[in-house]
Amino acid sequence: MKTATIFIRTVIGLLLVFVSIAYFFNIMPDLANSGDFKAFQLGLISSVYLMPMVKTIELLCGISYLSGQYVALSNLIVLPVSTNILFINFFLNPNGLPLALFVFLGNLFLIYIYWKNYKNLFKRN
Description:
By secondary structure, this protein is mainly α. The protein has one domain (about 1-25, about 50-120). It is about 75% helix and about 0% strand.
């Protein structure tokens, strides 16, 4: 289980770091988009602050995953991001669904592995 945890944490960390660096340095070309997905992307870009904030969160959580520091905290911080990635790809861009599923399920797996760190959040006083 430890090997699987390190593997999933590392792969997701590399993905998050790569995607955020590619965004900030404009490394990857824009994908050919059409219809609702293109309208959604234009809305995200028009908001000015949202994409840089999400990519910063992805970068910080990716570095956390790669370094193995604050992983339990990063799991919770990146959960809404991975959920959004899954929903965007499910509803608007089915081509990216396999990678989105991997990130989301990997995030859930890491939350399960680090569950002992979250138990106190769900205790009644």
